[in-house]
Amino acid sequence: MTYGTYLRLDDLLSCQRPLTESHDELLFVIIHQVYELWFKQILHETELLQERLEAGDSARALGTAHRIAKILKTVVGQMDILETMTPRQFAAFRPELGSSSGFQSAQFRHLEAVLGRRDFTNAVISDDAALAAIVARRPLFASLLRYLNGAGWQVPAAVLDRDPHESWPGDKQIQDLLADVYAEAGTAAEVCEAFVDIDEGVQEWRYRHVKMVERIIGVKTGTGGSAGSAYLRTTLFRSAFPDLWEVRSQ
């Protein structure tokens, strides 16, 4: 076993296949491939995080949540590299992207679903078996509530047993419970704060994504005919765990 064979570098390094002679297209390809690798790792970590939460393993759950937040910081930092590309440099190969668009990232949809998004169309779900499976199981916040219930915080049975297919709009009773958790300032509060770090990391990535798109293509239609930055702006500050933000106003 060697470094190259273990990492399958021949396969990995043959995956970058720019369609033009533009110098900057390779950067564009690598950045987006690396995004997908990090999305894969985040999905891997969130699955473990849910297992550890539901097993009541506070210490290891915290470690996993902190890792996810650090990965998100790294993903956001990659925007700095992509923003070294000028609008003219991007325009040199943009036509070759055809109908492809970042909106087609299946793994990012999967991540959104793990975080609790449920407003996918039936067509999107029916075309993505992995997404359908994620939507059918508990999202991350539901696992947090089970963790809190196991730690002695009385979460209503109706909340614990709710249909995972349904969106979670937030709940005043849960917010009151979270206020008590924070008032105690124990390990459970640390776990909740780790969730806020994850939520903030996703929101930060969305913001940087919007500004990167505006910086490179302005308000023009996005690749693949998407609405570009106009749509991306509508996703800003959409919290995955609204109760953890609302409790700060109490």
Question: What would a concise description of this structure say?
Answer:
Its cofactor is heme. This protein is mostly helical and about 250 residues long.
Helix/strand class: mainly alpha
Number of helices in the DSSP assignment: 14
Major pleated sheet: none
Uncertain residue segments = none
At the first level of CATH, what is the class?
A: Mainly Alpha
Q: What overall form do the CA principal axes indicate?
A: elongated
- Give the SSE string: HHHHHHHHHHHHHH
Distance between the termini: 57 Å
Please state roughly what percent of the residues sit in beta strands, choosing from under 5%, 5-15%, 15-25%, 25-35%, 35-45% or over 45%.
under 5%
Domain module tally: 1
Rg, nearest Å: 20 Å
CATH architecture: Up-down Bundle
**What do we call the CATH topology?**
Methane Monooxygenase Hydroxylase, Chain G, domain 1
Mean pLDDT: 91
- Can you give the helix content as a percent range? 55-70%
Number of strands: 0
Function: Heme-dependent dioxygenase that catalyzes the oxidative cleavage of the L-tryptophan (L-Trp) pyrrole ring and converts L-tryptophan to N-formyl-L-kynurenine. Catalyzes the oxidative cleavage of the indole moiety.
Pfam family, one: Trp_dioxygenase
InterPro entries: Trp/Indoleamine_2_3_dOase-like, Trp_2_3_dOase
Keywords: Dioxygenase, Heme, Iron, Metal-binding, Oxidoreductase, Tryptophan catabolism
